[in-house]
């Protein structure tokens, strides 16, 4: 055990942070490759979390907030194990795990309200305007989709987290705006739940149903005298609601319905692109996250927030431009039978009006 302690004691002499950080700061390209963000953005995040990550110890030199942020970003960017990160930075496994959890929580609590806030009033209007300008889909306040995140099977959970893709997962459900940013996320649904059930049981669904998000107000369709509600765009797995636009079932498509589906599909690729950009940058999302569920939730939330922060401060990646056939990740799912009530009939009528608008 003594030789292990000696390795950790030489952290400031041989640890990755201490012999690499200064050189990275002198090379913007390499810094971006290492951290997935610019030095300016790194310093911006550091300034917001520094007070929460500052530790005091009279017996040995503490790990600085800058090193803690570095360790966390490398874990999120590479998906390497705590053991591997620990050897690189000369830290014990449990030290790395503690740093990652504390730092992710600090980032979320310090910057969440700044970079991920559901748009209301003027902000919502700006989003719908941008959706129309860029994607030619009116009255859209966002596109919703979900992603299964691999996790270590929780103890005594049975098959609750075992999904139809045959691995254990929790579900990240996200709403993306026209610029590939997430305007709302929800993490933690059981992997076993059906796609439709994940949404129906979510807090987001309940807030949309009771109108607390103020997202369903009506607005005039461009170039017409028709007023229709704002809504999210979704795929076939989601229910048709007055606040949810989904495609027509493929079993009964005429030319007008097919064209409507193409227009909706093109706009909906915004959220698929958002997931694609985020996953390609933060490679932990391609690996199995081996932490307790509550800690996995905050790690995933932090990654989504970092995705937004980088876009807000550095812009959209130049090589991202979806096409009608690009970023297709979800197979068509048959619509479930639902009872005919007033809200459902209204949702069908709204979709018919949107179909007519596109002709």
UniProtKB/TrEMBL annotation:
Chief place where the protein resides: nucleus
GO molecular function: hydrolase activity; metal ion binding; nuclease activity
Cofactor list: a divalent metal cation
Keywords (A to Z) from UniProt: Hydrolase, Metal-binding, Nuclease, Nucleus
Pfam family, one: DDE_Tnp_4
Any single GO CC term annotated in Swiss-Prot or TrEMBL for this entry: nucleus
Compartments it resides in: Nucleus
Top-level lineage group: Eukaryota
All residue ranges annotated as the DDE Tnp4 domain in the record: 144-308
InterPro entries listed in its UniProt record: HARBI1-like, HARBI1_dom
Record flagged with keyword Glycoprotein: no
Family as reported in the entry's similarity comment: Belongs to the HARBI1 family.
Protein name: DDE Tnp4 domain-containing protein
């Amino acid at each position: 055990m003594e030789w292990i302690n000696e390795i950790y004691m030489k952290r400031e002499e041989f640890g990755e942070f201490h012999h690499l950080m200064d050189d990275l700061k002198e090379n913007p390209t390499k810094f971006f490759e290492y951290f997935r963000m610019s030095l300016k953005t790194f310093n911006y995040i550091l300034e917001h979390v520094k007070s929460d990550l500052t530790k005091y110890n009279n017996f040995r030199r503490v790990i600085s907030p800058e090193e803690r942020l570095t360790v966390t970003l490398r874990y999120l960017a590479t998906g390497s194990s705590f053991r591997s990160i620990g050897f690189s930075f000369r830290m014990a496994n449990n030290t790395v795990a503690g740093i990652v959890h504390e730092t992710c929580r600090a980032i979320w609590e310090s910057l969440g309200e700044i970079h991920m806030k559901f748009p209301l009033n003027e902000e919502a209007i700006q989003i719908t305007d941008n959706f129309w300008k860029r994607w030619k889909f009116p009255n859209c306040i966002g596109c919703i989709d979900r992603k299964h995140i691999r996790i270590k099977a929780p103890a005594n959970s049975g098959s609750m987290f075992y999904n139809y893709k045959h691995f254990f997962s929790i579900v990240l459900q996200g709403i993306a705006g026209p610029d590939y940013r997430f305007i709302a996320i929800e993490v933690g649904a059981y992997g076993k739940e059906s796609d439709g059930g994940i949404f129906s049981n979510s807090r987001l669904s309940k807030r949309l149903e009771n109108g607390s998000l103020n997202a369903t107000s009506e607005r005039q369709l461009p170039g017409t005298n028709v007023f229709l509600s704002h809504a999210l765009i979704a795929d076939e797995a989601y229910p048709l609601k007055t606040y949810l636009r989904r495609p027509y079932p493929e079993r009964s498509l005429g030319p007008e319905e097919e064209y409507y589906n193409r227009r909706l599909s093109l706009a909906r690729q915004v959220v698929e692109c958002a997931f694609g950009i985020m996953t390609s940058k933060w490679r932990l999302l391609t690996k199995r996250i081996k932490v307790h569920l509550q800690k996995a939730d905050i790690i995933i939330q932090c990654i989504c927030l970092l995705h937004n922060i980088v876009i807000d401060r550095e812009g959209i990646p130049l090589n991202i431009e979806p096409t009608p056939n690009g970023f297709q990740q979800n197979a068509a799912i048959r619509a479930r039978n639902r009872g005919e009530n007033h809200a459902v009939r209204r949702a069908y009528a709204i979709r018919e009006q949107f179909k007519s608008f596109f002709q």
